[in-house]
């Protein structure tokens, strides 16, 4: 008869207190419609800034607000209230650094960067993007900016992101169901990864325990 000692120990290890605990951290945990800042709003400690959105009249910051995401209409068009996609948000903070820098980014150059990516041609299987491309090929000079801003809303915003988004981490247009941007780790990761709040890092396999602490994702119960 073979010795079952090792398998018993493994079973005990895999059913310990930590392995039974759901440790996945919701990316929207703490997201609110207003911040309670008293000044600045220049860092991720501001809940609006953290999620790539501008502050509003119900926020506590008032006239002291310097949130760079108050000026996203520069990319998305006037009267648009879109928040920046997490990957775009990270890039803006690194590249623009503040509101003045944000409005110095060349929109035509950013558009060309997107168009020159390997995955750009794949988006035209989608009817919405196909219509956008059809109009772009015939567009008048005075309509270019508004049409570029529409592309930005589709690939760089949260509200209007379609099945694709432009990843500054990968310098490519990606499918939403193949990769996603972890707002905590600040990088694009494989769709099969989830963020463990216990370790504060992403780990592979929705139905697998965290490779560091043994915690589980919300999907672990479907295994």
Explained architecture:
With 223 residues, the chain is α+β, with helices and mostly antiparallel strands. It has a domain of 121 residues. It has 9 helices and 6 strands. The strands form 3 sheets. A two-stranded antiparallel ribbon has the order 1-2. A two-stranded antiparallel ribbon has the order 3-4. A hairpin with a 4-residue loop joins strand 1 and strand 2. The two termini are 31 Å apart. The N terminus is likely disordered.
Q: What's the mean pLDDT score?
A: 86
Q: Which parts are unreliable, with pLDDT below 50 for 5 consecutive residues or more?
A: 1-19
Radius of gyration: 21 Å
The strand count comes to 6
**Beta-strand content bin:** 5-15%
Strand order of the largest sheet: 1-2
Coarse morphology: flat
Structural class: alpha+beta
How are helices and strands ordered from N to C?
Answer: HHHHHHHHHEEEEEE
Q: What helical percentage do the residues reach?
A: 25-40%
Roughly how many Å apart are the termini?
Answer: 31 Å
Individual helix count: 9
Let me know the largest β-sheet: 2 strands, antiparallel
């Amino acid at each position: 008869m073979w010795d079952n000692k090792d398998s018993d120990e493994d079973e005990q290890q895999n059913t310990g207190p930590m392995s039974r605990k759901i440790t996945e951290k919701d990316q929207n945990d703490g997201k609110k419609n207003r911040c309670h800042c008293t000044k600045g709003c220049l860092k991720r400690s501001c809940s609006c800034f953290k999620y790539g959105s501008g502050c509003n009249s119900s926020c506590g910051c008032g006239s002291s607000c310097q949130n760079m995401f108050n000026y996203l209409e520069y990319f998305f068009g006037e009267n648009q209230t879109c928040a920046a996609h997490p990957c775009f948000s990270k890039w803006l903070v690194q590249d623009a650094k503040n509101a003045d820098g944000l409005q110095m980014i060349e929109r035509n150059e950013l558009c060309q960067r997107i168009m020159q990516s390997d995955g750009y041609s794949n988006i035209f299987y989608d009817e919405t993007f196909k219509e956008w491309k059809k109009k772009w090929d015939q567009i008048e000079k005075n309509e270019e900016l508004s049409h570029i801003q529409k592309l930005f809303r589709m690939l760089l915003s949260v509200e209007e992101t379609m099945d694709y988004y432009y990843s500054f981490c990968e310098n490519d247009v990606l499918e939403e169901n193949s990769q996603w941007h972890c707002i905590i780790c600040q990088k694009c990761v494989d769709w099969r990864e989830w963020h463990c709040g216990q370790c504060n890092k992403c780990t592979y396999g929705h139905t697998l325990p965290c490779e560091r602490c043994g915690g589980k994702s919300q999907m672990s119960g479907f295994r």
